[in-house]
## 1
Amino acid sequence: MQVTKTFKRIIFLELSIPVALLTIGIYHGLMQTIYRAGVLRDTSFFKLDYYQGLTLHGVINAIVLTTFFAVAFGHVTMAFYMKKEPNKNLMWLSFFLKVTGTLMAAWAMLAGKASVLYTFYPPLKAHPLFYLGAALLIVGSWVPLFDWARMYSRWKKENPTVKTPLAVLGTLINFIIWFVCTLAVAYEVLVLLIPWSMGWTKGVNVSLARTLFWFFGHALVYFWLLPAYIMFYTILPKVAGGKLYSDLAGRIALFLFLLFSIPVGVHHQYSDPTIAQGIKFFHGMLTYGVAIPSFITAFTLAASLEYAGRKNGAKGLFGWMKKLPYFDESRYLFAYFICGLILFIFGGVTGIVNASYSLNNVIHNTAWLPGHFHMTVAGPVFLSIVGMSLYLYSTMSGKKVFMRKVATIVPYLWMIGMLIFSFGMSWGGLRGEPRRTNLGVTYLNPESGLYRPDWVPTTTLALCGGIIMFIAGMLFIVVFFGTILKKKTAEGALDIPVAEAYHDEKRVALFDKFKPWLVTMVIIICLAYIPALMSVNKNSGPEAPRFDPNNPVPIETVTK
Ligand code: HAS
């Protein structure tokens, strides 16, 4: 499909700005493993503080990259399947809001005025521009939803009996989840944090802020995941050489995400004393509910891949696994997808452990957690984002991928690094190794009385994995920008591989309309969150004053 120059320009900018920022994000990832392994026994390196680096790492990789990509991929999906480009003025508006927000937050982080990590829990206080920047980034990502909804309703009127393309359904569901969940964090930022950070209000209700954050925070992880799932359902079977085993299974999974992505946030707060046990248990049960669409996805994708393998001549029960195009350079996207999926098997299993109300006590706030989430957000999410960014740039610009062999090997290198890193982190977590801690100054420093020799092997493994991932990440940056610098060899076009469905499933009306699902979504959210907010309101202690991340004494006392 041919698209206009303006459309291409916006998409290229939305893909390349976050990939450029990745250099900073990935560098700080490596630095984390170096500090934690005790190789560096200091609180800062090159004038960048440990927590400043960790904040940059989390915000750039988990918030900026994912949000820019979700919007760009949404534009591309809507344009490709609706055969119509979104409104250019709104595309630019969304882009500028996101860029302005990112620049504001980046200034605050680089100036050392917002070392509050990507969760920005109070009473750690950031500069108001950090919160404002985050809010602008979010508002910028809301804008396209309204335009896509308009495009979709027009398309629906013209095609009342045609099944909504799965990728369009997924994009709309993802951005509805995003819109609803971000309302809570917008309230947290605008009403609680900014006035408190400016000094207009004396204290902040920490428990309420955390509860509002996690209303947003867990849905956020599915906002990261769904673009990857859209690619797995609609593109992967095609590049594997097969068909999608069931389109209906994909629809069911997507609607289940709409129901269960938000009302599970309290599973991040099992240890918060202000929330009653029964509420935690209910959120725990719903968390098992949100794992169901991923189980559906695992079986549907495995069946689709098995079909592809058998079509390629595979025999026996598991022979199909050997007949997939792992190193086929002309189908390099496959490598990004399959490595992400393999990592997600472990990311999923560790997530189920986290969800257990009792087992969570063992791993909460330990290194196990980064072990878990790197195999999710830095697994299927990251790999499909970078793989697809490269694919979209190359096909839309008409430029061949630079060092295609390297581009195909990068995801395997990343996966190996990630498996080693996450194994080290998970093992360390089970031995009590804390997350978000500069272990080098104490626990991994033999000169410290707190030295823990049993954490040497675990942190060393994480360091080895970190180095391999850093190399893979940098190779990707070379491939991506090398491609940008290449000369055009063809007329660029928007061309996405589309997987055919294996079964000719009839259109089921329930899985092709939003209203019943939206109503159910609201009911479940109310059931899960009204009691949680009442509990927080009843049990919260005094409000907290402002704290600087580098000082255990409140700011007001320090300055007096
Ligand atoms: Fe999680 C904490 C529970 C999924 C991200 N999670 C986090 C944090 C992050 C995160 C960032 O219940 C830390 C937040 C912080 O900073 O404090 N998580 C779950 C559960 C799932 C889950 C039950 N998480 C994700 C995803 C993420 C993500 C997805 C990012 C994208 N998580 C938790 C809990 C906590 C938590 C607690 C809080 C813990 C605490 O104490 O603080 C589920 O959605 C997982 C379901 C997944 C599966 C796997 C399906 C497998 C597939 C692959 C199939 C492979 C094939 C290939 C087909 C059931 C689809 C086969 C072919 C071959 C050739 C082999």
Note: The pocket of heme-as is lined by residues 119, 221, 224-225, 267-268, 287, 290-291, 294-295, 297-298, 301-302, 305, 321, 341-342, 344-345, 348, 351-352, 354-355, 360, 364, 369, 372-373, 376-377, 381 (CB under 6 Å).
## 2
Amino acid sequence: MLLKDKVAVITGASRGIGKAIAEKFAQNGAKLALISRSDGAIKLAQQLNDKGFTAKGYQLDVSDYQQAQQVGQQILQDFETVDILVNNAGITRDTLLLRMTEEDWDKVILVNLKSVFNMTKAFLPTMVRKRQGVFVNISSVVGRGGNAGQANYAASKAGIIGFTKSVAKEYGNRNIRANVIAPGFIETDMTKDLPEKVVQEYVQRIPLRRPGKPEDVASVALFLASDMSSYVTGQVINVCGGMDI
Ligand code: NAD
């Protein structure tokens, strides 16, 4: 019960990595505000409630600043406080830069990077007042190493790292921690349409010789959200099976 009675907000919680983090946090005693673009987070919250956990779902496009502030206020009313924010929502629009449209660029930056600003703004004042809070932001190994066909995605994920390190420096003296997880190749809906050949090429580059599972990322998120990491801030932790980036 590493998160007993802590209130955690998780974006992109309907499936994949976000869902695994929600389940892991629930099992560790957290009360959950789950967000997704679809009604998936509302459905997951219902399933968790049925199992005896405390969770509420919210439908929100995290790239919309005003909506994010409104839902943030609603969450603070519903739960009275917030201790942990996991910025996990993300999308890809992969294509070579020569073919990348302005819309491909803007959409990925808005959903992956601006959303982190939007959600952080919604909860930072409460955390500063309490002099306690934890941010866990989900980037990618691609944000550190770059990747052909993902200039927009890599830029958004690199931006998350700079943003998080800045939050860590600006609010460390208020007992607020901010860290990044950089997953490698994880089996989720986001990667399910990759051709088998590409998957095999990835696996050959991974010393542990398997794709990651959402639970592999969730375990590190639990560590970073809990007091187990009380002296860890401003860091990027790769969860990539040892893959070179
Ligand atoms: P996924 O596609 O399975 O899930 C994405 C989640 O984000 C969904 O719940 C979706 O509703 C939500 N979402 C997308 N746009 C949203 C919006 N505008 N507003 C609110 N919610 C929105 O993806 P996943 O593989 O679970 O990825 C989760 C995070 O991990 C992403 O940030 C992704 O970039 C990152 N990541 C994934 C991998 C991987 O290999 N799967 C690797 C590195 C990083």
Note: The two ends are 34 Å apart (CA to CA).
